[in-house]
Amino acid sequence: MTAAMRFRAAAPAAFERRDDARYAVDVKRATVSQHGDQPSAAALIDISAYGCRLAATLVPDPGERLWLRFAGRPAIAATLVWQEGEALGCRFDEPLAATFVRALTLHLI
């Protein structure tokens, strides 16, 4: 660290409300759909056992139920918590298995 960086003012950290750490991933083979609709292509950006962030053109309203598929695996039920542009923040109905999250983060799927 340089002397100039040591005295640089830092903005306060945002309050983190997540239950678990999120892990950055780059899964392009993902889809998201609403009940009865055709799946839309999506990219998984980060994930934890409890939720994820996706990039998708689908524009649902917060609180809506979604079904997510990652790399051709069975659908995962989730609720949209927030949406900002093409970024979607989802909370899974049931926590994902640690082995599945690990496989996604290690690009094994």
Name the features.
109 residues, globular, mainly beta, 6 strands, 6-stranded antiparallel beta barrel, disordered N terminus
Structural commentary:
The protein has 109 residues and is mostly beta strands. Helix content is 11%, strand content 42%. It has helices at residues 3-6, 98-105, and strands at 23-33, 40-47, 51-56, 65-70, 76-84, 87-92. Strands 1-2-3-6-5-4 form a six-stranded antiparallel barrel. The chain is globular, with a radius of gyration of 16 Å. Mean pLDDT is 81; it is low at 3-16.
What's the quick description here?
It is built from 2 helices and 6 strands.
Strand content: 35-45%
Give the radius of gyration.
16 Å
Task: Tell me the quaternary state.
Answer: single chain
The computed structural class is mainly beta
How far apart are the first and last residues' alpha carbons, in Å? Answer: 38 Å
Query: H/E series, N to C?
Result: HEEEEEEH
Per DSSP, the total helix count is 2
Q: Note the main sheet.
A: 6 strands, antiparallel, barrel
Shape: globular
Q: Determine the fraction of residues in helical runs and give it as a percent range.
A: 10-25%
Q: Mean of the pLDDT scores?
A: 81
Strand order, main sheet: write it out: 1-2-3-6-5-4
What's the total count of β strands? 6
State the low-pLDDT regions, or none: 3-16
What's the topology here?
Blueprint (H helix, E strand, L loop, with lengths): L2 H4 L16 E11 L6 E8 L3 E6 L8 E6 L5 E9 L2 E6 L5 H8 L4
Antiparallel strand pairs: 1-2, 1-4, 2-3, 3-6, 4-5, 5-6
